[in-house]
Amino acid sequence: MKKFYLIFCLGLAAVLVNSCSKDGFPVPPASTVPNFTHTVDNDGFSPATVSFTNSSIVPENVGNPTYYWDFGDSTSAEGANPSHFYKKPGAYLVRLVVVTSTSLEIKEVVKTIVLKNANASGTPIFFTNGGIVYSALVNNQAPIVSELPVAGLNDSYGMTIDTLRNKLYISDYGAGKIFQCDPDGANLFVFRDGLDSPNAMQIDYPQNHIYWDTGTGIQRADMGNSDVNQKEDFVSGQANDPDGVALDPVNRTLFWINYNGGVWKKNLDGSGEAEIIPLVNGGSIIVANNRIYYDEYVAAADIHLKSANLDGTGVALLATGISRVVYGLAYEPGAQKIYWGDRNKGTIMRADLDGSNAEPWFVAAGSSPRGIVFGKKF
After folding, report:
1. Cα 102 to chain centroid, rounded
2. Which of 13-27, 105-119, 307-321 is predicted least confidently?
């Protein structure tokens, strides 16, 4: 045993000598790591010039690097920091390949570059993956998704949009905040702070209130009040963790679904609080065409999408096999479609209101779409 211990110690010492720098800290094996950033002129609209900045890590002992670029539009170039002119809008897959002269490494990285169309029309759609907010247009073309300059999100699950004042509201579950910004991500600021795990939000225009869920109820705030601490309880004592919130402006009713069970409603005048569908575990609910739409956890990787009358009767099954509890459910009135996020599959699905003609609208591995909301069509 002592002999084995001595051999082990000698071996360990050799490893430490060969893998440590002069200051005693471990040094990982030298390897090339390709990377780049980019900027787009013309406010991101095509035609535009994209300037690429090479930020690759190339250790000295690998030799001289050569940089090869594929700009995604059937053109290519060689060089460290090229610029490229794009004539047409679209989402381009740009590939940087780094080849080293001594170690003979061939490493590559691929990123998507988006050039917007100034003449495009459609319905604006916004969604988040928890830390990044995205926007696109819904029309008869494949979606071109852009990342909004909204920084500092901890863990966002919900959004809503004030179509009268053209303002986007973003909840941050992890930070306990609601942010407000313009639809392009500009003028971001904290609208409300010190909140209890906010997710979904809804706006009541007649009373100028915004509603959101908490861990034990529903709160609301005066949208004209700039005090980040102003809020009031609208629903309290909910033991099952409300997550989704929906508003019926015609009948002046608020609906919510609990993560641990139950679909509830309450009139906006404070009366009529009642559970209308018991034993339903879900994360999202909306109102569309005089019905409620919601998700229901049935089993792992088998979340169902359902609809019901406003009193909870007439439940209909619309979709099955959704990978996780839904935190993005929205109605697009122009095409009479519902959209929902399938987080584990990185997919936003859409279908007719009865669940027919279901199809993926957006697919991106790892995107975890949540908080889907639509703006005004243009």
Report:
1. 42
2. 13-27
pLDDT confidence of residue 14? 35
Please give the Cα distance from 144 to 116 (Å, whole number).
8
Q: The tokens of 74 are what?
A: 């059937």
Which residues on neighbouring strands pair with residue 33, listed in sequence order? Answer: 57
Domain spans in the chain, listed from the N-terminal domain onward: 36-115, 123-374
CATH 2.120.10.30 fits 123-374, yes or no: yes
Tokens describing residue 1: 């045993």
- Which of left, alpha, beta for 206 (phi over 0: left; psi -120 to 50: alpha)? alpha
Which tokens in the block code for residue 12? 């360990």
Helices (H) and strands (E) in the chain, counts: 1, 31
Class for the domain spanning 36-115 = mainly beta
Which residue from 360, 344, 340 is spatially nearest to 143, judged by alpha carbons?
360
For the cut 80, the answer to whether the pLDDT of residue 53 exceeds it is yes
d(CA 122, CA 140): 8
